[in-house]
Design brief:
The chain has 333 residues and is α+β, with helices and mostly antiparallel strands. It has three domains: 21-111, ATP-grasp fold, A domain (Dna Ligase, domain 1), CATH 3.30.1490; 122-234, ATP-grasp fold, B domain (D-amino Acid Aminotransferase, Chain A, domain 1, 2-Layer Sandwich), CATH 3.30.470.20; 263-329, no CATH class. The protein is 32% helix and 24% strand. The protein has ten helices and 17 strands. The chain has helices at 5-14, 31-42, 80-85, 149-155, 173-182, 187-206, 238-245, 265-271, 283-296, 303-316; strands at 22-25, 47-51, 62-63, 71-74, 91-93, 102-103, 107-111, 122-131, 136-142, 160-165, 211-219, 225-227, 232-234, 248-253, 256-261, 278-279, 328-329. Strands 8, 9, 10, 11, 12 and 13 form a six-stranded antiparallel beta sheet that branches. A four-stranded antiparallel beta sheet has the order 1-7-2-4. It has a three-stranded antiparallel beta sheet with strand order 3-5-6, with no helix packed on it. Helix 5 crosses helix 6, helix 8 crosses helix 9 (283-296) and helix 9 packs antiparallel against helix 10 (303-316). The longest helix has 20 residues, at 187-206. The chain is globular. The protein starts with a helix and ends with a strand.
């Protein structure tokens, strides 16, 4: 499942992760009002206009119809409509799209966070994912933010750090302090980074994601730590999608945007005792979702559900652990 940048930031923000604030619009007519609202909320007077498509390299990409890049800076409210017009509705071609590009149906108008101040800004890389070899989550981070992490790994691997998290105790305070120290931070920025890392890990764990990646994480000139760009969240379950993004959301599947109404069809299939083709949700979320579905119907959880969850429990207690549920194909019923 692919998420737009603004959707990913919405999830992060719900877990207390500081993000670059922004407002998404789908028309030029709404752009000025959105920018004024953003100024009222954040005090920003410059705005970053970002195409919302599922592809990387937007900033270096080009809109076929206008020649605009996919990420541009509006240096004042009077430029906002012109910048939005240059992106919205056009086809953005990047290194990750075809030659025809992807149509831009929405743009994110975001606050400018690279403002001058008492210190220099710094960019970092950070991701959270499962280290299957060690059987635990790992936080990967680097001082070389804003760059292609694969390039950093190839040419300067000593600048990439890893912090493994013991699943029995979770992320500990000394680990967040170690990360902040390795990134060369001190004072207020050090404190803010420890909070950022803790909140980011809680978000990763809370939505049962396969991977979080933020590039860059920014230290602002006034020592705030925020998620700016490259917010990538791989595979989180659709029940959490309902909670985090609303009952009806827009997702991209097979290259096309679709509206998804939740609870999802597979829950109804499970309730009715039908076969489930592919399940990408893990046991706790299946249990809570089906029980919620039953409660809404004022009915008891059917006996066949207990048979299904019993088999999930057998799998979850095996040495295979959680990864067995990823893309699990079932034919139990």
């Amino acid at each position: 499942m692919n998420l737009h940048e603004y959707q990913g930031k919405q999830i992060l923000k719900s877990y207390g992760v500081s993000v670059q604030e922004g407002i998404v619009v789908d028309s030029v007519e709404n752009a000025r009002a959105a920018a004024l609202k953003l100024t009222e909320e954040t005090g920003t007077s410059w705005y970053v206009v970002k195409a919302q498509i599922h592809a990387g390299g937007r900033g270096k990409g080009t809109v076929t119809e206008t020649g605009s890049h996919g990420v541009v800076l509006a240096k004042g409210i009077d430029q906002i409509e012109e910048k939005v017009h240059g992106i919205l509705g056009g086809h953005l071609v990047t290194l990750q799209t075809s030659d025809t590009g992807k149509k831009v149906n929405k743009v994110l108008i975001a606050q400018d966070v690279y403002y001058p101040g008492e210190t220099e800004t710094s960019e970092f890389y950070m991701s959270v994912l499962l280290d299957r070899e060690k059987g635990c989550n790992v936080i990967i981070y680097s001082t070389e933010g804003g760059m292609d992490i694969e390039h950093v790994a190839e040419h300067t691997p000593h600048l990439i750090y890893k912090e493994h998290v013991d699943p029995r105790v979770g992320l500990q305070g000394f680990q967040t302090r170690k990360i902040a120290f390795n990134l060369g931070l001190s004072g207020e920025a050090f404190k803010q980074m420890t909070k950022f890392v803790s909140s980011l890990y809680n978000a990763y764990d809370g939505i049962d994601a396969a991977m979080f990646e933020i590039n860059p994480v920014l230290k602002t000139s006034d020592n705030k730590i925020i998620a700016v760009d490259g917010v990538k969240i791989d595979r989180f379950n659709e029940i959490n999608e309902k909670v985090l993004l609303g009952k009806e959301v827009i997702v991209e599947r097979n290259g096309a945007e679709q509206k998804v109404n939740l609870p999802v069809d597979f829950i109804n299939q499970l309730m009715n005792g039908k076969k489930i083709s592919v399940v990408e949700l893990r046991l706790p979320f299946i249990v809570s979702a089906v029980e919620e579905n039953s409660a809404n119907k004022n009915a008891e959880v059917p006996s066949h559900f207990h048979r299904v969850t019993h088999r999930f429990m057998i799998l979850s207690s095996s040495q295979l652990g959680y990864p067995v549920f990823d893309n699990l194909v079932t034919s139990w019923l």
